[in-house]
Amino acid sequence: MNTEILDIFLKLNKSNKLAHFYLFKHTNKIDDLLLNIINIINNSSLKLIDNSFDNLSTNIFFIDGSKETIKKQNIQDVFYKSQFKNDTNLKNIILIKDIDNAAAITINGFLKFIEEPLENIIILATTKNINKILPTIISRAQIISVNLKNNPQNSFNDWTKDIKLDENQILLIKELIKKLENLLINSQLNLEFLISFLKDNLTSENKFLLDVLQKILLPDEILESNVKELNQIKKFILKKPKLLEKIILTLQLCITFSENISTINANFEIQKTAFLIKLRRIYE
């Protein structure tokens, strides 16, 4: 797996198509992988001193969230320094370890930097818990999954055990998954089928469909799931990473819908209509 990732970076670097922001989702230690990627980007042969990225090179800016919470000032200082380090032969690389270990105010500050990227700066960030990261950050990143565990395939019933379901509800969920899968294959052809399904079946009595849709759309569920019914969705996203951005937007939309209908006197049908209109816009 790591060899494949390095091959990808070699090709991207050679063709001058490196992205501005990469988010590495991992379970095990990946320091060696990160060092190799840094060396590929700048055609260097750097080595870690005392197993630390501190003071690795003057064009490498390191923020370590593995030992303490990342503060807003850390982000501001590093990005400020990186903007004024102008060595035309080298990329300035900002490495953020465990970016999920940052307060919301810190992440909001980080968002401002990645919304207006500078050409000579590449950000490499890592996380062991992608669900703690704001969807707005995830949608702007190229997500790379590393060291995924090869767990045995889980049953659909195990996957849905935290949601109490009867047999008819499970059939509805499987149909929802199929409609979503078809949408990812061809959004122009299949969008209306999903919209029609949700219009008919997503009711105030069947709000569990919204809960399940959110569960399906969580990045961890999609990319690490070993549930047979989700395998096709997972394959599409791995082949076409840009799909993940639309899925993140859909997840945000579902969360907003859930929040809106939980408020006092909220009209479910009005909120559902607004939800479906916005969903259509994402995939049109």
What does this structure look like?
The protein is of the alpha/beta class and 284 residues long. It is built from 13 helices and five strands. The chain has a five-stranded parallel beta sheet with strand order 2-3-4-1-5, with helices on one face. Helix 7 (167-185) packs parallel to helix 11. The longest helix is centred in the last third of the chain and has 20 residues, at 242-261. The radius of gyration is 21 Å and the shape is elongated. InterPro entries: P-loop_NTPase. This is DNA polymerase-3 subunit delta.
Features:
284 residues; alpha/beta; Rossmann fold; 2 domains; 13 helices; elongated
What is the CATH C-level name of the largest domain? Alpha Beta
The number of helical segments is: 13
Task: Sum up the overall morphology in one term.
Answer: elongated
Tally of individual domains: 2
Distance between the first and last residues' Cα: 34 Å
Parts with pLDDT < 50 across at least 5 consecutive residues: none
CATH homology superfamily of the largest domain: P-loop containing nucleotide triphosphate hydrolases
Question: Roughly what fraction of the amino acids lie in strands?
Answer: 5-15%
Pfam families: DNA_pol3_delta2 (PF13177)
Organism: Mycoplasmopsis mustelae
Protein name: DNA polymerase-3 subunit delta
In terms of topology, how is this protein built?
Blueprint: H1 2-14, E1 21-25, H2 31-42, E2 60-64, H3 72-83, E3 92-97, H4 104-115, E4 121-127, H5 135-138, E5 142-145, H6 156-159, H7 167-185, H8 187-201, H9 208-217, H10 219-224, H11 231-239, H12 242-261, H13 268-283
Parallel strand pairs: 1-4, 1-5, 2-3, 3-4
